[in-house]
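Query structure, 324 tokens:
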């Protein structure tokens, strides 16, 4: 090599210079530039160009998965992390988590075709719903509704409530049967019919992918509106009726108590006679109590306010006194 060649070779490796020039002392014919010689330069880290020998660890613009991390090559020819990982697990979206980046710990290769477990708190099939909220975990409730004389009752509506929200409802057929699909969980069932008092069953559990049977028959059959309940109230209302005496277990202290409690509400007190009162519907006569009060104010001004309130089922005047 001459002195000019040596100056050029100093900018690249000796091995590369020999490979490109053809011989240790030969002319460099593939390099353009001044006098047939060129100065080595590296554009965009093009590994296909001899000028880029040992210039960087990667070609600019290239990408790879380094284990489970997605990386791209920068303009400075260095790998840098560039992946997305919405669920913050150990695999990037671009490296095998594109179908399940919404669920930590579940990846494309481990994703299930359906919700394999309805109680593990994981979205096994990555469809955006978990456990009982997933369609794959649905269960059902079915049963029979009967009315008066335990006869099958058609056109009754059975509603499944979670809290105060109706989650599903079904209407009984001609045989009094109903069925409805619901998410697994616990429900209150309310059955209603225009000719009968509504009835509620609480705490009906529906396991995942299972059917729960809940009947409204026999002791749980519907009672016609206007008939009597065991607490002497009419079916469908909270009013006590003296005419319910002896029906479905209703039993007043005696006929006087029955007449005193007629059209009252449970827990109300009514005059049994001039000296005694009775708590409706099943209470025994008790002597009336009278409390005398005396209010005094040694200093300042005594201020009294009054209002009408309901006490023991009777309207009474409530007087509030304050001294100030």
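Result returned for the query:
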């Amino acid at each position: 090599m001459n002195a000019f060649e040596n100056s050029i070779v100093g900018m690249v490796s000796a091995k590369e210079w020999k490979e490109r020039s053809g011989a240790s002392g030969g002319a460099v014919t593939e390099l353009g530039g001044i006098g047939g010689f060129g100065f080595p330069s590296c554009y965009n880290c093009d590994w296909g160009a001899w000028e880029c020998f040992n210039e960087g660890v990667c070609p600019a613009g290239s990408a790879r998965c380094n284990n489970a991390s997605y990386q791209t090559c920068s303009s400075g020819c260095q790998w840098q992390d560039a992946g997305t990982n919405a669920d913050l697990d150990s695999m990037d979206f671009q490296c095998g988590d594109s179908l399940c980046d919404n669920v930590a710990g579940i990846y494309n290769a481990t994703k299930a075709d359906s919700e394999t477990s309805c109680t593990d708190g994981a979205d096994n099939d990555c469809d955006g719903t978990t456990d009982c909220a997933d369609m794959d975990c649905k269960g059902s409730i079915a049963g029979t509704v009967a009315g008066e004389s335990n006869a099958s009752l058609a056109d009754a509506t059975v509603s499944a409530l979670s809290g105060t929200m109706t989650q599903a409802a079904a209407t009984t057929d001609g045989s009094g049967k109903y069925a409805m699909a619901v998410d697994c969980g616990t429900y209150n069932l309310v059955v209603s019919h225009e000719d009968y008092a509504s009835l509620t069953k609480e705490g009906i559990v529906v396991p995942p992918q299972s059917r729960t049977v809940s009947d409204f028959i026999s002791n749980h059959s519907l009672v016609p509106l206007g008939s009597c309940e065991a607490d002497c109230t009419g079916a469908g209302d909270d009013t006590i009726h003296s005419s319910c005496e002896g029906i479905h277990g209703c039993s007043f202290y005696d006929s006087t108590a029955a007449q005193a409690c007629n059209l009252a509400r449970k827990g109300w007190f009514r005059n049994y006679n001039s000296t005694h009162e009775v708590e409706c519907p099943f209470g025994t006569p008790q002597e009336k109590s009278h409390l005398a009060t005396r209010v005094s104010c040694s200093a300042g001004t005594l201020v009294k306010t009054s209002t009408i309130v309901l006490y023991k089922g009777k309207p009474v005047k409530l007087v509030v006194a304050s001294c100030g």
